[in-house]
Amino acid sequence: MQELEFAGGRQVTPGGEVKVLSGLQGRAAELDPIDKRDLADPDGVRRALEALISQWRGEARLQYINRRAVRSVWRDGQVARPSACTVWALAGNVVTPEGRIVAVGWSGRGMGLAELKDGERKERFAWMLAAIDRAEPVPTGPRPAVLAPAAAAVLIHEALGHFAEAAPEGRVDIRHRLNVRIASEVFQVQDHPMADGGAAHYDVDDDGVPSLGPVEIVKEGCTTALLHSATSAAAIGVPSTANGRSASIWDPPLPRMSNLVCSPGGDDEEKLLDELGDGVYIHSLSHGSGFANRLGAHVRLAEKVARGRRTGIFLTGGVVDETRGVLLRAVALGNVSSFNENAMCGKEGQVLYDVGTCAPAIRIESLRLRA
């Protein structure tokens, strides 16, 4: 366990020069002191991790992080309301008895102790480890698929969320992405920094811009808005959407998602599977990524589906190898949306631990898989 406490700042001059300050300098910062009661007790974390790992078969290599930050922004002589944020993350790998490496990625707002102690979460992950240990290799090629909400969240985050983020610092004007069909008409998606249950929770972003509420970014599968920081918005002469977010006070705020919320459809998972016929059910994806028009993710756990029923024949390994238009092949959504327990997101070298994605199950006509 290691504890660190520091203060610092980042100043951008009218000419665009950036100065990084270590320690408070100049005019006194109107910040509340860090309240350590908002941080998890190290002994409590250790006990929770020991109890968590004892439920698993295999060797765990994990890192727990808990951070508390209080920030304020001065712009044009005006002081924005200070904002405070506490985030946590548990990341690493478990090596199963059969030698399979399973990624662990849990994160969100607060201390994380309640999540580490959650019995249902512990049992679910232990079940997944056991299933992965006896799983067969994932078949390659295009397959009809149903994605569980946790797996669907990864595709929605990569295919829709990042597509709607403006270019950092307004380096490129990407308004040509507006009114583009990026998914089938079943998708309605908002970005909402105060969404109930979301990992993000702020009413003032890291630029000091107040949020005006949810921003609709996809309507009936077409993009309707871009997410902006103050800098990217000013570069093209539009208002900020209060999506300027930075990993630390020394990093420039970038246009980033807060909580991505996909509205549910009208079908339960049993109906999605029944209409699938033969294919795969994707329980869990990890390491979601996107570059240019490509999109990928590792398949942690999947299951064969035959005649509309899950078979108990588990699959692991391999990757989803897709384009950003993968959700154009989505034909139906489940009737329940839930937040993914992994809220970590990296962009331009900055990692946030509180980027929420709320998604329903998705049935896709064809999902490309490879070894």
E-strand count: 23
What order do the strands of the largest sheet run in, or round the barrel if closed?
Answer: 9-16-17-19-23
User: What is the percentage of strand-forming residues?
Assistant: 35-45%
Taken in chain order, the helices and strands follow as EEHEEEEEHHEEHEEEHEEEHEEEEEEEE
Q: What is Rg?
A: 21 Å
Total helices: the number is 6
Mean pLDDT: 91
Which ranges are low-confidence, i.e. pLDDT below 50, for 5 or more consecutive residues? none
Distance between the termini: 38 Å
Category by helix and strand content: alpha+beta
What's the structural domain tally? 2
Give a quick set of tags describing it:
Double Stranded RNA Binding Domain, 23 strands, three-stranded antiparallel beta sheet, five-stranded mixed β-barrel, 371 residues, alpha+beta
Question: Would you give an account of this structure?
Answer:
A hairpin with a 2-residue loop joins strand 21 (345-347) and strand 22. A five-stranded mixed β-barrel has the order 9-16-17-19-23. The protein has a three-stranded antiparallel β-sheet with strand order 3-6-7, with no helix packed on it. The chain has a two-stranded antiparallel ribbon with strand order 1-2. It has two domains: 8-133, Double Stranded RNA Binding Domain, CATH 3.30.160; 137-370, no CATH class. The longest helix is centred in the middle third of the chain and has 15 residues, at 119-133. With 371 residues, it is α+β, with helices and mostly antiparallel strands. It is built from six helices and 23 strands.
